[in-house]
Every structure is written in C-alpha cells, then in structure tokens.
C-alpha cells in the first residue's frame, strides 16, 4: 500500500473483526497502448468481504484496470496479487486458478450470454469446468444459484433474449457465483439498467456480500451507486489515482478538485452548469 | 432500452417470418427429386439401361414411355429417376467436403487474426478467382474420368465460397462480449470456438452450403456433359444431355431438353431455398444485435 488509505481497520470489521491479509492487492499497475497510458501507477488493496469502488469518467482507466484484474489484459508493469499469490503466466492451469479466484460482471448482461443457450445451461457450463460432479449435482447447484439471485426455475429455462435486463444481470451474477470466486469485479454492472432495477441488483449484491464474504471491485461513474455499494473508493483520472479513502468521506468532503468536480456534475438544486464547465477547464490547465 | 426493443422486434419479425410460397414449392420439388432418386428401382417404369432400337426417339406422351425415349430407345423418365442419384449425391459430397474445409479454414483465420488471417484470406481469394470448372477439368485430365477426382477438385474450389462467409461471421460473432465472459471464466480458446462460436456460425454456413450445392450440381452436370464425369452406362443428368446431342441435331430434342429442365428446376429450387435461409438468418442476427 503506497498512498496511505485507511483500509485495514474498517474493512476487516466486515469479516469477523479479525485483521486479515488482503485478498487482492494491486501494486504500481501500468498499462500502455502504444504511446497512450491508460493506467498509470495504480495501487490498491482489497480485504476479504470488502467492497472497493473505482470511480472516474470514461477514459479514466477504470475499465482497463478492471480488465487487467479479470485477466483480459496484461499489465505493462506492476503486479496483481490474489490470495497472497502474484498473478502470472498464461498456462491453462494458471488461467483456471485465476478464474476460480476472480470473476467479472459486464455492463451488457445480454451480450455476456451465448444467445443459443438457456440461462441454466450457461450457469452449468462453468460449474462443469470448475467443480466436477454429476449432472444431477450440477442441476441442483444451478437451482440453488438461481434461487440465491432471486430467479425462478422458469427463468432458468429461458433464453437470454426472453429475460429482462435485470433478470439477465441476476443470471450473470449467478453464473459468476457458481465458480465461487473470492473477488467479483463489476464493470458498470448496473449502468445499463433502469433505476428501480438498479436498486434491486444493488440490494442483491449487498446481501450476497454479507452472506458469502465475497469481495467486490465496483467500477462505476455513478457516485450514488458507489456510495451505496462500497466501503472505500479510489477516484481515477487520466489513468492515475487522484483520491482514495472511505467512500462516505470522499463524497462528503472531497479533497481533490476532480472529485469535487465529479460531485458538482450531478444535477441537483442550484446546479450551475457554467460553473462546472469552468471548473473543468481550470482542472485541465493544472 | 434493452428491455423493450428486442421484444417489439421479435413480435414484428414473427409476423414477417411466414415462409413464402416459392420456398415451399422449391422444398417440395427437391423432396420429390430426392425421393424419386432414392426409390428409383421401385418407381421407374423401365430399367435405365434397357435399350430398344425399335423404340428409339419416341416423343413424350407415348404410352409406356411418358417422357419418350432417347436415341438408343432407353426410357427417359427412368433415366432421369436413376440419374437423380448421382446428380444429387455428387454435389452433396462436394458440399460436405467444402463445408468441413471451409469451417476449418474460416474459423482458423477468424480466431488467429493477424498475419495468419492475411495469408489464409489471400489464399482463399486466389482459389476463389480460379474457375471451379477449369480446376475440375485439370484434375480430371490428370486422373482420368470418374467422379471422385472432380468432387474433390470442386470441394477445394468451393472452400473459399464457404470459408469467407464463415470467417466474416466468426469475426463478427467473436467480438460479442460473451466471448470475453467465457475467457474470464477460464475456458480455453478451442472450447469457446467449437462450443460457442461454431454453433452460432452454423446457420450462415448451411445457407451458403445450399447455394454451393446448386453451383456444384451445374458444374458436375457440365463435366458429365463434356464426358469427364460420370461414365456410361451410369447416368446422370449431364451425361443424358450429352448423349442427346445427335438427337437434337436430328430435330428430336426431347431426350436432352427434359433432363436439362430437371437440372434447371433443381438448381432454381436450391437457390430459392438458399436465398431464403440466408435472408432469414440476416433478420435473426439484426434482431439479436
């Protein structure tokens, strides 16, 4: 941990009050695409059962960070440590081990399913890969998982296109939970949903975290969502972390002008668009 | 937005998806031809190779020979029935072979990308630019007449016809987010390609292969017409037309025109079906996107 975030005490409380080692720690992560630096020296830690928000606008590097965590991109430099083990190598076994520890929920729940498979088939497939067992055991487990995310058996027999956005996102969560990862990366996981459905999914995520002790890395541009679902947060801008700390504290008394700008950008009574634009110009000049 | 629009689209698509009359007609004709070929020994009124010089070049409508006889007195109807076997089986072989090759080459190009894709794609362009009939004739010139060699040659020259479509659909489908979600879940590239990419490519492949079937049928009939395909006494439609050449010159065109008509109707039917399959896939994909 480099830039002094008070993670330890607060986060550890959520898991039996014991002080644990972090389940995920990211050190000096850098990712460049050609001459463009998408992620620039990002470090953070995540305790078991904790929830960390990565906040920023589009282009801030938050999604690239999430994709590195999920193993979809290789960092240019820096390390990702999961469960005390540095993530490296592309071998079949390394990829499987990685998948068992960390899973990802995408923004577009429709696109993240094979359109030809029923939801139950899609949930069963990673089970067969990661938890060998009989067909009957898998079917029972799929039933449990559907139940856990509040989907009916009938939804399980449906094709992705026959479900609503919220149901699909529940299904995507069930599929990820089937692998029983320690960490779940949620990349704008509720951004495509209606506000009322968003609330349901967020409540579900909150319950699941309390029940299973899973940790979240919640990537979002939506500060209200981040406030609800995370304990600590980092604010990213142009690939760098500009502010970090407890989510409540950041949102109540932001230290960095960019965080203040993000907060001011939310429409509210007395909202002054000109002032926001002015602040943004001032920030870009810094 | 994802909640409402697909539902609306699905409903309007269902209304559109009624099968046009021409397609039903085409399918019915193809089934008729296939069944006739299959049951030729039962259905045919005469043996296909029974000659009778007294009854040569009878016009259609003659009692006992409803479609007439050819210059050696063989029953044209019976020969068309028996000829359906080779005329349909040989293009089927071409389509199956080129389908397998096309899948392999197309998927490899799509998944490998980069220079491998460039090499494979240019290779397919070259084969595609080479006339299939010419390639088949070259192969026959080397190997002698018979069906195996031209089937293989045509399969190779139709591979780009299938492979290019497989490649482009596989690239399009491979860019869908679910491919990444399977990677995150720890599935290997091969598994994702065969279990998830291929089935989603299959409908396009079937449509394209149907069209290839029509082209292959014409090519093989042409080869037989040139005396390079089926060898007597076996008959297919192309060789029947070929053997009717002298009769046509004598002003008795029936024994050549009738098999020609059957070839024409079969190919038109196959094309109607292929176009329909291709079209309905296009609709389905625009719904899913």
UniProtKB/TrEMBL annotation, chain B:
UniProt GO cellular component terms: plasma membrane
Highest taxon above the source species: Bacteria
Membrane topology according to the record: Multi-pass membrane protein
Keyword line: Cell membrane, Membrane, Transmembrane, Transmembrane helix, Transport
Subcellular location: Cell membrane
Transmembrane segments: 21-44, 88-110, 122-141
SUPFAM superfamilies: MetI-like
ABC transmembrane type-1 domain sequence ranges: 84-274
Statement: the UniProt record of this protein carries the keyword Signal: no
InterPro entries tied to this protein: BP-dependent_transpt_permease (IPR050366), MetI-like (IPR000515), MetI-like_sf (IPR035906)
An example Gene Ontology biological process: transmembrane transport
Family of the protein in this entry: Belongs to the binding-protein-dependent transport system permease family.
Alphabetical list of PANTHER family matching this protein: D,D-DIPEPTIDE TRANSPORT SYSTEM PERMEASE PROTEIN DDPC-RELATED, OLIGOPEPTIDE TRANSPORT SYSTEM PERMEASE PROTEIN APPC
Annotated protein name in UniProt: Peptide ABC transporter permease
Organism placement in taxonomy: Bacteria, Bacillati, Actinomycetota, Actinomycetes, Streptosporangiales
Gene that specifies this protein: dppC
């Amino acid at each position: 941990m480099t830039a002094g975030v008070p993670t330890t005490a607060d986060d550890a409380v959520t898991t039996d009050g014991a002080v644990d080692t972090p389940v995920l720690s990211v050190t000096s992560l850098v990712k460049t695409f050609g001459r463009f630096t998408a992620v620039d020296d990002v470090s953070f830690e995540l305790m078991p059962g904790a929830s960390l928000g990565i906040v920023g606008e589009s282009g801030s590097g938050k999604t690239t960070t999430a994709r590195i965590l999920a193993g979809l991109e290789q960092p240019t430099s820096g390390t990702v440590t999961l469960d005390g083990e540095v993530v490296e190598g592309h071998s079949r076994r390394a990829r499987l081990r990685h998948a068992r520890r960390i899973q990802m929920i995408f923004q577009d729940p429709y696109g993240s399913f094979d359109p030809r498979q029923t939801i139950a088939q899609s949930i069963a497939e990673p089970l067969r890969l990661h938890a060998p067992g009989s067909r009957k055991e898998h079917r029972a487990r799929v039933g449990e998982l559907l139940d856990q995310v509040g989907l009916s058996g009938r939804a399980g027999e449906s094709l992705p296109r026959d479900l609503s956005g919220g149901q699909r996102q529940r299904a995507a969560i069930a599929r990820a939970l089937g692998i029983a990862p320690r960490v779940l990366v949620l990349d704008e996981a509720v951004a495509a949903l209606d506000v009322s459905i968003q609330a349901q999914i967020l409540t579900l995520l909150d319950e699941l975290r309390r029940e299973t002790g899973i940790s979240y890395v919640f990537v979002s541009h939506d500060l209200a969502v981040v406030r609800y679902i995370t304990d600590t947060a980092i604010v990213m801008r142009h690939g760098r972390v500009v502010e970090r700390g407890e989510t409540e504290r950041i949102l109540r008394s932001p230290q960095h002008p960019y965080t203040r700008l993000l907060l001011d950008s939310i429409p509210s009574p007395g909202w002054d668009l000109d002032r926001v634009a002015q602040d943004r110009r001032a920030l870009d000049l810094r | 937005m994802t909640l409402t629009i697909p539902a609306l689209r699905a409903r309007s698509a269902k209304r559109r998806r009624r099968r046009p009359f021409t397609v039903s007609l085409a399918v019915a004709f193809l089934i008729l031809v296939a069944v006739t070929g299959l049951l030729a020994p039962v259905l045919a009124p005469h043996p296909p190779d029974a000659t009778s010089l007294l009854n040569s070049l009878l016009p259609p409508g003659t009692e006992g020979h409803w479609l007439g006889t050819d210059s050696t007195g063989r029953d044209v109807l019976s020969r068309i029935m028996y000829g359906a076997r080779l005329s349909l089986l040989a293009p089927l072989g071409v389509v199956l072979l080129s389908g397998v090759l096309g899948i392999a080459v197309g998927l490899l190009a799509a998944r490998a990308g980069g220079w491998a894709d460039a090499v494979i794609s240019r290779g397919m362009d070259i084969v595609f630019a080479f006339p299939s009939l010419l390639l088949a004739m070259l192969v026959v010139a080397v190997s002698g007449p018979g069906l195996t060699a031209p089937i293989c040659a045509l399969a190779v020259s139709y591979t780009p016809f299938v492979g290019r479509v497989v490649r482009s659909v596989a690239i399009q489908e491979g860019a869908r987010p679910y491919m990444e979600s399977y990677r995150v879940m720890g599935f290997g590239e091969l598994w994702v390609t065969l279990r998830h990419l291929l089935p989603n490519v299959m409908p396009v492949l079937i449509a394209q292969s149907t069209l290839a079937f029509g082209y292959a049928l014409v090519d093989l009939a042409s080869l037989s017409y040139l005396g390079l395909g089926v060898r007597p006494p076996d008959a297919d439609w192309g060789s029947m037309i070929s053997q009717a050449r002298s009769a046509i010159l004598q002003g008795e065109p029936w024994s050549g025109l009738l098999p020609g008509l059957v070839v024409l109707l079969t190919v038109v039917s196959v094309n109607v079906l292929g176009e329909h399959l291709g079209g309905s896939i296009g609709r389905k994909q625009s719904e899913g996107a």
